[in-house]
């Protein structure tokens, strides 16, 4: 397969922090509409890989191609504009705005909170807000102030804010941390829906949740891939049990 067939092609990606290789000659390929979960022990390099893809951390060597475009030389903003969205663990929603307004300000044509709050509500924006609100199960609470949402709903709203920009690759770092069992199930359904027309990379420690969402699992250990494949194969892998799942 040539690189052009993948949404994301990571090759020989390396980053050193004072000589310590947090990511070490990593190769990883993500298909269109694939939901990949990255697991591994603390310090394995999972978050650093997402930081490298979104441009928050600059690589020491190697390449990251998104739809065949090299990302390692682009700024964080350019990477967002290229179609890569990233959600961090702590939600960064506007607590004093409504659900509707949070989605509206995330519409790409707006420029920051003030620019977009005062621009005309074109049909296009309204349609997009309703479409995304439905996807994140918040259609009925569009007028609610974000501060009043549950922890799970805040996480979904932030996913919705990213979806407003229609990213072709969405990356989520521990999306169900702190959620109730019901919210975890609903998040699994949400992710299964949204990967139908985009690729998604999720870092997660909750194996029950991983089973519900992963098309393929990549196990990282010391900045390298220890195993990769369908969940059942990875779970039965002795090396994986030894360094991660057995603990
Ligand atoms: N900016 C940095 N400067 C120095 N060291 C760093 C930096 N970022 C990450 N590291 C180190 O790189 C290693 C990998 O960290 P990373 O956060 O990617 O691991 P992780 O797999 O996401 O772990 P966790 O499951 O605990 O979140 C760790 O040893 C960490 O201390």
Automatic annotation (TrEMBL):
**Where does the record place the ABC transporter domain?**
8-247
Top-rank taxon of the source lineage equals Bacteria
Any one Gene Ontology MF annotation carried by this entry is: ATP hydrolysis activity
Q: Cite the InterPro entries for this sequence.
A: ABC_AA/LPS_Transport, ABC_transporter-like_ATP-bd, ABC_transptr_urea_ATP-bd_UrtD, BCA_ABC_TP_C, P-loop_NTPase
One of the record's GO cellular component terms: plasma membrane
Q: Which UniProt keywords apply?
A: ATP-binding, Nucleotide-binding, Transport
Q: What Pfam families has UniProt attached to this entry?
A: ABC_tran, BCA_ABC_TP_C
PROSITE patterns recorded: ABC_TRANSPORTER_2 (PS50893)
**Under which name does UniProt file this protein?**
ABC transporter related protein
């Amino acid at each position: 397969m040539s690189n052009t067939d993948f949404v994301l092609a990571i090759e020989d990606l390396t980053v050193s922090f004072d000589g310590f290789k947090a990511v070490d000659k990593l190769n990883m390929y993500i298909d269109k509409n694939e939901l990949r979960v990255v697991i591994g022990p603390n310090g394995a390099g999972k978050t650093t890989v997402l930081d490298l893809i979104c441009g928050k951390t600059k690589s020491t060597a190697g390449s990251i191609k998104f739809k065949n475009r090299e990302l390692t030389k682009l700024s964080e903003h350019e990477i967002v504009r290229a179609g890569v969205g990233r959600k961090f663990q702590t939600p960064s929603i506007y607590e004093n705005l409504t659900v509707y307004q949070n989605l509206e300000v995330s519409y790409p044509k707006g420029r920051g909170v003030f620019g977009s709050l005062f621009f005309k509500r074109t049909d296009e924006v309204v349609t997009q807000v309703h479409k995304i609100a439905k996807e994140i199960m918040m259609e009925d609470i569009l007028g609610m102030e974000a501060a009043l949402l549950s922890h799970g709903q805040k996480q979904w709203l932030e996913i919705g804010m990213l979806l407003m920009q229609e990213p072709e690759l969405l990356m989520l770092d521990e999306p169900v941390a702190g959620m109730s069992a019901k919210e975890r199930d609903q998040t699994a359904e949400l992710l299964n829906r949204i990967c139908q027309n985009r690729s998604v990379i999720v870092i997660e420690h909750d194996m029950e949740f991983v089973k519900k969402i992963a098309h393929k699992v990549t196990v990282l250990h010391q900045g390298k891939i220890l195993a990769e494949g369908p969940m059942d194969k990875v779970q039965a892998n002795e090396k994986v049990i030894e360094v991660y799942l057995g603990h």
